[in-house]
Specification:
3 helices, single chain, alpha+beta, 27% strand, 123 residues
Protein backbone atom coordinates (compact mmCIF):
# COMPACT_ATOMS: atom_id res chain seq x y z
CA UNK A 1 0.00 0.00 0.00
CA UNK A 2 1.42 3.39 -0.97
CA UNK A 3 1.46 6.44 1.27
CA UNK A 4 -1.39 7.93 -0.75
CA UNK A 5 -3.67 4.92 -0.30
CA UNK A 6 -2.83 4.66 3.40
CA UNK A 7 -3.98 8.20 4.22
CA UNK A 8 -7.48 8.76 5.58
CA UNK A 9 -10.09 9.77 3.01
CA UNK A 10 -10.40 13.21 4.57
CA UNK A 11 -6.88 14.11 3.41
CA UNK A 12 -7.90 13.97 -0.26
CA UNK A 13 -9.44 17.35 -1.18
CA UNK A 14 -12.02 16.83 -3.91
CA UNK A 15 -11.27 17.68 -7.52
CA UNK A 16 -13.53 17.81 -10.57
CA UNK A 17 -14.12 14.33 -11.96
CA UNK A 18 -13.28 12.40 -8.78
CA UNK A 19 -15.48 9.39 -8.04
CA UNK A 20 -16.65 8.46 -4.56
CA UNK A 21 -18.16 5.02 -3.91
CA UNK A 22 -20.23 4.66 -0.73
CA UNK A 23 -20.63 1.01 0.26
CA UNK A 24 -23.80 -0.04 2.14
CA UNK A 25 -23.11 -3.38 3.89
CA UNK A 26 -26.74 -4.45 4.24
CA UNK A 27 -26.79 -8.01 5.67
CA UNK A 28 -29.45 -9.16 3.17
CA UNK A 29 -28.57 -7.24 0.01
CA UNK A 30 -25.40 -5.14 0.17
CA UNK A 31 -25.28 -2.31 -2.35
CA UNK A 32 -23.26 0.73 -3.33
CA UNK A 33 -23.67 4.11 -4.93
CA UNK A 34 -21.12 6.16 -6.86
CA UNK A 35 -20.94 9.93 -7.00
CA UNK A 36 -18.97 12.15 -9.35
CA UNK A 37 -17.56 15.47 -8.17
CA UNK A 38 -18.86 18.25 -10.41
CA UNK A 39 -19.09 22.01 -10.34
CA UNK A 40 -22.45 23.20 -9.05
CA UNK A 41 -24.18 25.06 -11.85
CA UNK A 42 -27.47 25.88 -10.12
CA UNK A 43 -28.99 29.37 -10.35
CA UNK A 44 -27.74 30.31 -6.87
CA UNK A 45 -24.40 28.57 -7.13
CA UNK A 46 -21.04 30.18 -6.65
CA UNK A 47 -19.23 27.35 -8.47
CA UNK A 48 -18.74 25.07 -5.47
CA UNK A 49 -17.90 21.41 -6.00
CA UNK A 50 -20.83 19.07 -5.32
CA UNK A 51 -21.56 15.36 -5.51
CA UNK A 52 -23.80 14.06 -8.31
CA UNK A 53 -25.09 10.50 -8.46
CA UNK A 54 -23.16 8.65 -11.16
CA UNK A 55 -24.84 5.27 -10.74
CA UNK A 56 -25.89 2.77 -8.05
CA UNK A 57 -27.05 -0.79 -7.57
CA UNK A 58 -29.78 -0.34 -4.95
CA UNK A 59 -31.61 -3.71 -4.93
CA UNK A 60 -35.16 -2.51 -5.57
CA UNK A 61 -37.22 -1.57 -8.60
CA UNK A 62 -39.53 0.51 -6.41
CA UNK A 63 -38.38 4.15 -6.67
CA UNK A 64 -40.10 4.98 -3.38
CA UNK A 65 -37.77 2.53 -1.57
CA UNK A 66 -34.65 3.69 -3.44
CA UNK A 67 -32.22 4.91 -0.80
CA UNK A 68 -29.54 6.07 -3.23
CA UNK A 69 -28.73 9.73 -3.70
CA UNK A 70 -28.24 10.63 -0.04
CA UNK A 71 -25.30 12.89 -0.89
CA UNK A 72 -26.68 14.35 -4.16
CA UNK A 73 -25.92 18.07 -4.32
CA UNK A 74 -23.88 18.01 -1.11
CA UNK A 75 -20.32 19.21 -0.84
CA UNK A 76 -17.75 16.41 -1.14
CA UNK A 77 -16.61 16.76 2.49
CA UNK A 78 -19.99 15.59 3.89
CA UNK A 79 -19.49 11.83 3.38
CA UNK A 80 -15.92 12.09 4.70
CA UNK A 81 -17.30 13.42 7.99
CA UNK A 82 -20.51 11.40 8.27
CA UNK A 83 -19.62 7.96 6.87
CA UNK A 84 -16.87 5.76 8.28
CA UNK A 85 -13.89 5.84 5.93
CA UNK A 86 -13.90 2.04 5.68
CA UNK A 87 -17.17 2.38 3.72
CA UNK A 88 -15.68 4.76 1.14
CA UNK A 89 -13.66 4.11 -2.01
CA UNK A 90 -12.16 7.16 -3.66
CA UNK A 91 -11.02 7.22 -7.30
CA UNK A 92 -8.96 10.00 -8.87
CA UNK A 93 -7.65 9.97 -12.41
CA UNK A 94 -8.53 6.31 -12.88
CA UNK A 95 -6.68 5.13 -9.76
CA UNK A 96 -8.10 4.00 -6.43
CA UNK A 97 -6.53 6.38 -3.92
CA UNK A 98 -8.55 5.31 -0.88
CA UNK A 99 -9.85 1.76 -0.52
CA UNK A 100 -11.89 1.86 2.68
CA UNK A 101 -13.26 -1.69 2.46
CA UNK A 102 -9.79 -2.99 1.59
CA UNK A 103 -11.08 -5.16 -1.23
CA UNK A 104 -9.18 -3.54 -4.08
CA UNK A 105 -12.30 -3.61 -6.21
CA UNK A 106 -14.98 -1.34 -7.56
CA UNK A 107 -18.68 -2.07 -8.01
CA UNK A 108 -19.39 -4.21 -11.08
CA UNK A 109 -21.60 -1.48 -12.55
CA UNK A 110 -18.58 0.84 -12.89
CA UNK A 111 -16.70 -1.71 -14.97
CA UNK A 112 -19.77 -2.30 -17.13
CA UNK A 113 -20.16 1.45 -17.76
CA UNK A 114 -16.71 2.02 -19.20
CA UNK A 115 -14.67 2.73 -16.07
CA UNK A 116 -12.31 -0.13 -16.88
CA UNK A 117 -9.29 2.15 -16.74
CA UNK A 118 -9.30 2.21 -12.95
CA UNK A 119 -6.06 0.77 -11.61
CA UNK A 120 -4.85 -0.33 -8.22
CA UNK A 121 -1.63 1.48 -7.23
CA UNK A 122 1.32 -0.77 -6.46
CA UNK A 123 3.78 -0.14 -3.67
Amino acid sequence: MTALTAQPAATHPAQLGDLLVVWHPDPVEPWSETYEVREDSGPYSCGDLVLCVHTHDFPSDNPERDASGTWEGRTPDKPWRQVRSERLTFVRGGAIVHDGPGTGRLPAYLASHGTRSVTWPTS
